[in-house]
Amino acid sequence: MVETTKASNNLSDADRAAILDAAGDFVRKAVAPRVERPEVAVSQQDLAAMDALARSTGILPHPGEPGFALWEPETPLSLSLEILRMTARSSAGVAYRFHLAGLYHDTAVSLGIPGTTAVISGGGIGLGKGALACLLRGEAVSAATAYDLFPHAARPIPCFLPYRPDEVAFPFLEDGRLQWRRSSAFTLRAEPHGHGLVEAGLATLTLNDEGVVVSPSDPEKVFTRHLGLHGLGALAIALGAVEGAYRKAIRYAHDRKQGGVAIAEHAAVRLLLAEASTAMATAATSLRNLPEDIATPDDLSQVFRLQAALHPLLCTAANACMQVFGGYGYMRDYGMEKVVRDCNALRLVGGTTTELKLHIAQDEVLAWR
């Protein structure tokens, strides 16, 4: 674990550099060797070993031991995003696993829940006829309108669980307002290979009771931060995944010969590489201009705008990198098709582009009232 000289959101440059050096060393030594064969699924044993090493390195939080791990309150957003981006260059699935572990811990701490907790948000952002925007701005909505937004007992909920939790926390509607509950009565079923992000642990969770009420001081703010950090993390991971794919693609383009010259000399290949590098530059610049925290509905709408604009670009960039390999790009051995699958999965887990835009439009209407 890295020792730092300040316990505040304003890390010194030396502290920040030390944390990033430790994270980079961790990725090179603990992650990269375990994911170097993309055609082979990472074993549960290797995933558990990476989790343990990430905690000992200080990348994942220790319950009861505040520090500068992913998404902890004292950790600058830009630092968490850089660590996720760095990890995703080797494996987007592993990065997303770490992202969720840190995010669930942060939300559980905000709710005052100790122990190993997962956070299940329930339905899609676009469900409930724009109810989410109303709830986050403190406006009451009917139970019928918001029903599909939240988890309910006996209804299976698809989710990613990087570990088996002792409890789950979830938002719900109480007298037309957003509140939170916790429950240790649930059934969990691991799901087979999904479309992407398989290292994060795809599962189906069914609540066996309605849970007990948790009363944070500002339930809307907790959910706003949870959704915003989830979206930002997914973007950083997609960017890192494309950066890793681009490095492989440009190396392949210089090594692969066709007609006696490297394919990097062909205009069509150069256009593919340029498309990927343009998308990466756009995303990297956008992620440098963020608020210090995601605390208000306006902050969340800004995150949703970034997701709606950048995820399609990064998915196209991932596909361009795969196309550089020609037919080989579709083979699992090269890992490029996995990057495409993972990027498309990241585009969906935080809300589809249409859902995000509908939320933005609804929130803007409410803000101008």
Q: Average pLDDT value?
A: 91
How are the strands ordered across the major sheet?
1-3-4-7
Radius of gyration: 21 Å
Can you write the helix and strand succession as a string?
HHHHEHHEEEEEEHEEHHHH
Q: Which spans of ≥5 residues are poorly predicted at pLDDT below 50?
A: 1-8
Largest sheet: 4 strands, mixed
How far apart, in Å, are the first and last alpha carbons?
49 Å
What is the overall number of helices? 11
Specify the structural class: alpha+beta
Q: What is the number of beta strands?
A: 9
Fraction of residues in β-strands: 5-15%
What is the approximate shape?
Answer: globular
Helical residue percent band? 40-55%
Task: Kindly describe this structure.
- With 369 residues, the chain is of the alpha+beta class.
- 51% of the residues lie in helices and 11% in strands.
- It has helices spanning 13-31, 44-57, 77-88, 92-111, 131-136, 143-146, 219-255, 267-287, 297-324, 336-349, 353-367; strands at residues 117-119, 157-160, 167-174, 177-183, 186-190, 202-207, 212-214, 257-258, 261-262.
- It has a four-stranded mixed β-sheet, covered by helices on one side. A three-stranded antiparallel β-sheet has the order 2-6-5, with no helix packed on it. Strands 8-9 form a two-stranded antiparallel ribbon.
- β8 (257-258) and β9 form a beta hairpin.
- α3 packs antiparallel against α4 (92-111).
- The longest helix has 37 residues, at 219-255.
- The chain starts with 12 loop residues before the first helix and ends with a helix.
- The relative contact order is 0.12.
